[in-house]
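[[Per-residue structure]]
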Amino acid sequence: MIQLTRLNNTDLWLNPVLIESLERTPDTIVTLTNGHKYVVLETPDIITERIAAFLRSIGIVGVAAGTSERKGEGA
């Protein structure tokens, strides 16, 4: 889960796997795959950094990076 902040400064915890899109209007709108939309204070850049950190923490990004690095070493 990643932590985001609603406009009223309350915390919002979302499963980043369910994020379908991020829109930058004056505020950031997060749309989930189920159609729910949330307006948050964080920018899309910050949200994508948090998503990447989450994916690294559960080993998804590390596996893909490790595979491509190993292929490069053998060449």
